[in-house]
Design goal:
The structure is a homodimer of 527-residue chains. The first copy, chain A, is α/β, with parallel strands linked by helices and 527 residues long. Chain A has helices at 42-59, 64-80, 82-93, 97-122, 165-172, 186-202, 218-225, 239-252, 270-289, 308-321, 331-346, 374-379, 401-409, 428-439, and strands at residues 6-8, 11-13, 21-22, 25-26, 31-32, 37-38, 129-131, 136-141, 147-150, 177-180, 210-213, 232-236, 256-259, 265-268, 301-305, 350-353, 357-358, 364-365, 368-373, 392-398, 414-420, 442-447, 488-493, 515-517, 520-522. Chain A has three domains: 6-260 and 476-483, Aldehyde Dehydrogenase, Chain A, domain 1; 265-447, Aldehyde Dehydrogenase, Chain A, domain 2, CATH 3.40.309; 490-522, no CATH class. Chain A has 14 helices and 25 strands. In chain A, the strands form seven sheets. Chain A has a seven-stranded mixed β-sheet with strand order 16-19-20-15-14-21-22, sandwiched between helices. A five-stranded mixed β-sheet of chain A has the order 23-8-7-24-25, with no helix packed on it. In chain A, strands 11-10-9-12-13 form a five-stranded parallel β-sheet, with helices on both faces. In chain A, helix 3 (82-93) runs antiparallel to helix 6 (186-202) and helix 7 crosses helix 8. Chain A is globular and about 75 Å long. Chain A starts with 5 loop residues before the first strand and ends in a 5-residue tail after the last strand. Strand 23 of chain A pairs parallel with strand 22 (442-447) of chain B.
Chain lengths: 527, 527
């Protein structure tokens, strides 16, 4: 057993929070892991804020090339620690080393950091806009204060507070970060922070560019996100925790980007079922059970048209759901899944398979399938959209197209919405009536594909309307789009030429950067 | 006297709110104007929401070209009513017909609508992004519900709830609007809405594309901005009203864009004063007294270095402030200016000129100049940044550069920050130490110019960090940038080609539209 330090103001140090501590738990054995982590008192959190604000000022004098270098050295330093990170990640989360942690999530994480480095170096992300006639130039710049990142439990590397998408985007946009570790994997987060801090030192970055705390009490958390020195917050996690932070940040006028909950509706239209029922049942179960159902994009709600064929579809899914369940990330996963299933049943859903905790060493909950009629869904639409963060799926049987439209109109905001339709166009009539309604309720609309699998692409939207996120205009995944969250719009009005940032001077600073000059996107100079 | 109708669901009708009414007041005479306006009850507001949601669905099938045509016909219809609009605008606001209302603000308003039309037609604003390798395409699309617009009292045309920047941006982005008139100029708003509704009918738009109510009680206002059917809200007005709406919208997860308050700091550095003290005093007074000081960008706080020269500057300004005051927009202007001056004095500011209401027919408050030391400013920085919406300005005397930096560090978020410096570079040392701090506190940084005068340019930022606005990433002025507030990010993942919106299909729909295809901005097709 060893007492783990926090990283504040460029030094690993024993936390002042020695009276309150916590340990991580191995979800496969339900046994605590040996290391002990502090709950940081407010004074320590405030020290991180002050150091972060100083780092934000210092960052102004550091060129994009140097910041890009930092992100690359950070990625290299993660790879150099692969074995340690993967091993501890496995112990803290129970996620499979292969094919998940080593060959998929870790490379995704370093790839994301390198994409962020490339965007930092290339600079087009900042949307430099030049109006030569009026002497006005604008650019997206840093926020002027540190970005606080709360990472989720389900992606210990790729959405990690220090190495994940929010951190990469915030750093690439020119901000320092304060990482608040997910308490499910504090050791993994510490290893990743060691890699980050090594890169900070190797590339001469401001020492408080990256800081780490593991946990605070609730009051300190809300004070943190609403503090005058904070630039913004990125949060991925539960709706209840997210809403508490959102309220505090909103009241203080501090930007907060949240990714909270989503049931990711999937419409399987009649022609598609006629055509390929078994294949779609395979896809649905595979997507639903990925990561033991603990993906933000897990398909939790499937809408079909009531028919013999859709009854057969239910049976086909049910057979697949009989498979033995995987291990959940933690004990809280067991409670929340159980609660959610209870809520769904209380709201009129009928249990088809599962619906109970599985006893044994690991945290396991039986794969759970439920069904409900369209009428009943419309009677309690809110309760029947309760997210169950596990292998739980609800099938809604619509009476007709009009009811399917009405069901779609009652959707809350979601990350994704999917449509499976007949390959020959037999479902296009229904699609054209329902998909436009779903379009404005989701961030990403899919055809003939399940929503899990979120590519790091400029055209990705891992976002959507509330309560999936806090704002429908931004994505949490995708470089450079995700960077836009952690930037402020800076206009320069008749500012003398030599005082303009390089991105806005007449000469294109890289010869490659795209800029919007007098109504034209160009890689050229102002002429 | 005549009882004025509301415009709901495509019909001018007598409001259900006949028990509560209000009239506008002529600020030059303090006498009520003859027309009577209803306070709409909640039921009527909800009818507008439902009709607006239907219009949002109908808009999906209307091509950008038709929406652009609507905006142009709207601009034409305003021009056809110029005399009536200008005359009533003058009576309701007291703003000069010339050079303000007829030759400046009205053309600005129609120009803005035509710029919005051009952006709608041209389509580059929606940032169509295509990743051919991953089958992902994204675009900014409409919000799926009506945008509520609360316009301010100080620009009856160019920021009007129905014809101003927020309305133009929301409509151009493909959303219906519900205009909540500013109660200072309900008749002007009605005339502008008549122009809008004529254009709706002439161009075959959904009948509830534009709706108008004049006033609600507070509870209905907060219900309106937080209603499930609402797309977003644009608000320009006082900080207290804005914060109430913000809290309600934030809690419901509904986007709200606010432009609330700003003191627009101006730094006049020593070399500039040595060089051109009288000219800068002229500029400061001219900017400060424009629109009787009721501009969001009025320079309310000037920072100088304490010296004999800056004392002479104060005297030069004071002499100009002795001029007779203009007419304020309403009685509430008198109270709030008086309150603000009292707060500034209570926080240690010393009154140099003015500080009292001027008796007579119109609402007038003496031009008011105050001074305070840097020490005192730092002792009560919040109170000394109280916005006074009139010809009121506070001069802060900093002891040295370090104190000037500290003053800047204590600024709240502002729309603008200005620096006057020596033309030969004698102030550049101080500029380099202070301007970077100001940069992250303001939306628009100016050199050698006062902040009033907000060009409608793609490179404008009429925005800034809280409490100037609710989000540092967006501008309320400037096409197409202002449209981004009223859009949602829509990603399409492997969606069949014929189902993609025209902007994302392989063929460039206009041959002119800029799209970001596989990392390159191009006007070409996907090849």
């Amino acid at each position: 057993m060893s007492y783990q330090p926090v990283l504040i103001a460029g030094a690993w140090r024993t936390s002042a929070g020695t009276t309150k501590t916590f340990t991580a738990v191995n979800p496969m054995t339900r046994m605590p892991l040996p290391d002990v982590y502090p709950v940081s008192p407010w004074k320590e959190v405030e020290e991180a804020l002050v150091a972060g604000a100083t780092a934000a000022e210092a960052l102004r004098d550091i060129a994009p090339e140097a910041r890009a270098r930092f992100l690359e050295v950070f990625a290299d330093a993660i790879e150099a620690r692969t074995e340690a990170i993967v091993s501890l990640g496995y112990l803290e989360t129970g996620l499979a080393i292969e094919p998940r942690l080593r060959s998929s999530e870790l490379p995704r994480t370093t790839d994301q950091l390198r994409q962020a480095a490339a965007a930092t170096r290339e600079r087009s992300w900042c949307h430099a806009t030049i109006d030569t006639r009026r002497g006005l130039r604008s650019v997206l710049g840093p926020l002027g204060g540190p970005v606080v990142v709360f990472g989720p439990n389900n992606f210990p590397f790729a959405f990690n507070s220090v190495s994940g998408g929010d951190a990469a985007a915030a750093l690439a946009a020119g901000n320092p970060i304060i990482a608040k570790a997910n308490t499910g994997h504090p050791g993994t987060t510490k290893l990743l922070t060691e890699a980050a801090f090594e890169a900070v030192q190797a590339t001469g970055m401001p020492e408080a560019l990256v800081q780490l705390i593991y946990r605070t009490d609730h009051e300190s958390g809300t004070r943190l996100v609403s503090h005058p020195l904070v630039g913004a917050t990125g949060f991925t996690g539960s709706r209840s925790a997210g809403l508490q932070l959102k309220e505090a940040a909103d009241r203080a006028g501090k930007p907060i980007y949240l990714e909270m909950s989503s049931v990711n509706p999937v419409f399987v239209l009649p022609g598609a079922l006629e055509e390929r029922l078994e294949a779609i049942a395979d896809e649905l179960f595979a997507s639903c059970s990925l990561g033991t159902g603990q993906f933000c994009t897990k398909p939790g709600l499937t809408v079909v048209m009531a028919s013999e064929c859709s009854e057969a579809f239910l049976q086909a899914i049910a057979a697949r759901f009989e498979a033995p369940p995987g291990v959940l990330l933690g004990s809280s996963g067991l409670w929340t899944v159980g609660d959610a299933v209870q809520q769904l049943c209380a709201a009129g859903a009928e249990l088809i398979v599962g619906g109970r905790e599985v006893e044994g060493a690991g945290f396991r909950y039986a794969n759970t399938l439920l069904r409900v009629s369209g009428e009943q869904f419309l009677a309690q639409p809110e309760a029947l959209q309760t997210e169950a963060f596990g292998v739980v799926s609800l099938i809604v049987f619509a009476r007709d197209t009009a009811q399917m439209q009405e069901i779609a109109r009652h959707f809350e905001g979601n990350l994704t919405g999917s449509f499976y339709t007949h390959s020959g166009g037999a479902d296009d009539g229904i699609y054209d009536l329902v998909a436009p309604i779903v379009r404005t309720k989701v961030g990403r609309l899919l055809n003939d594909a399940m929503p899990t699998g979120v590519a790091v692409s400029p055209a990705m939207n891992h976002g959507g309307p509330f309560p999936a996120t806090g704002h429908p205009g931004f994505t949490a995944v995708g470089i450079p789009a995700a960077m836009l969250r952690f930037a402020a719009l800076h206009s320069y009005d008749r500012v003398r030429a030599h005082r303009l940032p390089a991105e806005l001077q007449d000469r294109n600073p890289t010869g490659q950067m795209w800029r919007f000059i007098d109504g034209t996107w160009t890689q050229g100079d102002v002429v």
